[in-house]
């Protein structure tokens, strides 16, 4: 159920409705929109009679027939725009969000090389896994907390916000501590205990679509996070498994307008995992910008043939420069901007 408040409802009226809901043993989620606040009710099974219709400031109480409520456009007018303290970066705003960096944090030198080049080209977010969910237990599993410390240095030195993956409850706490956005990977999209824990975290969550997940399953996974009180959720299309064998996965770009029709949450596209092939990252990035994605996640490595994970789909810094140039032009056609980039002189420090 959803309580739609009047456009000019006061904070006090919103609080009174929330109190009525919570007193009945349910959870109230006040979600401010561009024009009005909606209050989602969770914890109830079916409709409940709380007498809210007649409370001050209430416009209407609607029964939500969809299985998801808080992710739905019914819950919020306008799109979710995620902001970050002390940064101009946003996710879901007019500026296209670009997250770039290596698949994994391998060393300080490798991570800094990628960070320097992606910051210069205009990325505001840096990606790099410190915990890697690998298909084989014998593959590189990530550097763990040591990798997170390198990422925290990247934020300080290059002014990039850090997006990094949590694979379990323990790593989630550390990722929340060191990172700016908590990534939940495709393989964990239906790890419900991890989703609930991410929902109790204080940082935004980037949720990647599972390799065989339907749109509804993706939205329900996001609902798990939001139902715990974390409303800063970003969806990411990263390709799904099909019979096609010319790419690692099939990048389902049509999910972008499909998500945007149903949900106010931002949706990014990851053409690196989505194709698995370096030469397909640029054309599919262009297409993602054209289809209206809120941003891109791109794997970049200064020496991809020696990368410890996903080298075949990682692009060189010079290719990333070209990608940003082209995406910038396409973004303008669909009414969006791309950050111009900042150059940070890589001066040697005692720790280098
Ligand atoms: C990644 O981003 O490096 C990753 C492992 O992604 P996915 O979960 O989409 O496979
Ligand atoms: Mn990867």
Q: Reading side by side through the largest sheet, how are the strands ordered? A: 7-8-9-10-11-12-13-14
Count of alpha/pi helices = 10
| SSE run | EHEEEEEEHEHEHEHEHEHEHHEH
Shape descriptor reads globular
**Low-confidence residue ranges:** 348-352
In percent, how much strand structure appears in the residues? 15-25%
| Helix share, percent | 25-40%
Give the mean pLDDT: 95
Helix/strand-derived category reads alpha/beta
Number of strands: 14
What gap, in angstroms, lies between the N and C termini? 55 Å
Strand-helix topology:
Elements: E1 2-5, H1 11-23, E2 27-32, E3 37-42, E4 58-62, E5 82-83, E6 90-91, E7 97-101, H2 108-121, E8 125-127, H3 145-158, E9 161-165, H4 169-178, E10 181-184, H5 192-199, E11 205-208, H6 215-227, E12 233-237, H7 255-262, E13 267-269, H8 271-275, H9 278-291, E14 295-299, H10 317-333
Parallel strand pairs: 7-8, 7-14, 8-9, 9-10, 10-11, 11-12, 12-13, 13-14
Antiparallel strand pairs: 1-3, 1-4, 2-3, 5-6
The protein binds phosphoenolpyruvate and manganese (II) ion.
């Amino acid at each position: 159920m959803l309580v739609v408040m009047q456009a000019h409802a006061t904070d006090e009226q919103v609080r009174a409705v929330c109190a009525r809901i919570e007193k009945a043993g349910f959870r109230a989620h006040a979600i401010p929109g561009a024009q009005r606040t909606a209050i989602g009710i969770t914890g109830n099974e079916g409709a409940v009679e709380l007498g809210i219709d007649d409370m001050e400031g209430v416009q209407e109480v609607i029964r939500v027939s969809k299985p998801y409520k808080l992710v739905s456009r019914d819950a919020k007018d306008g799109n979710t725009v995620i902001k970050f303290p002390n940064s101009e970066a946003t996710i879901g705003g007019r500026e296209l969000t670009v997250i770039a960096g290596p698949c994994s944090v391998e060393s300080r030198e490798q991570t800094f090389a990628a960070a320097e080049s992606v910051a210069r080209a205009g990325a505001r977010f840096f990606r790099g896994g410190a915990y890697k969910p690998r298909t084989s237990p014998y593959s590189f599993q990530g550097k763990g907390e040591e990798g997170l410390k390198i990422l925290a240095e990247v934020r300080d030195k290059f002014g990039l916000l850090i997006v990094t993956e949590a694979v379990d409850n323990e790593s989630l706490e550390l990722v929340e501590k060191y990172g700016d956005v908590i990534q939940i990977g495709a393989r964990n999209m239906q790890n419900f205990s991890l989703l609930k824990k991410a929902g109790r975290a204080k940082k935004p969550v980037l949720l990647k679509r599972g390799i065989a997940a339907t749109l509804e399953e993706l939205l329900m996974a996001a609902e798990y996070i939001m139902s715990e009180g974390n409303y800063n959720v970003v969806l990411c299309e990263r390709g799904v498994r099909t019979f096609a064998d010319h790419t690692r996965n099939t990048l389902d770009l049509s999910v972008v307008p499909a998500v945007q029709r149903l949900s106010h949450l931002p949706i990014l596209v990851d053409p690196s995992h989505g194709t698995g092939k370096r030469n397909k990252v640029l054309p599919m990035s262009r297409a993602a910008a054209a289809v209206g994605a809120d941003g891109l996640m791109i794997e970049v490595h200064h020496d991809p043939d020696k990368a410890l994970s996903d080298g075949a789909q990682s692009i060189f810094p010079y290719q990333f420069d070209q990608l940003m140039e082209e995406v910038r032009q396409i973004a303008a056609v669909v009414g969006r901007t791309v950050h111009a980039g900042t150059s940070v002189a890589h001066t040697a420090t005692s720790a280098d």
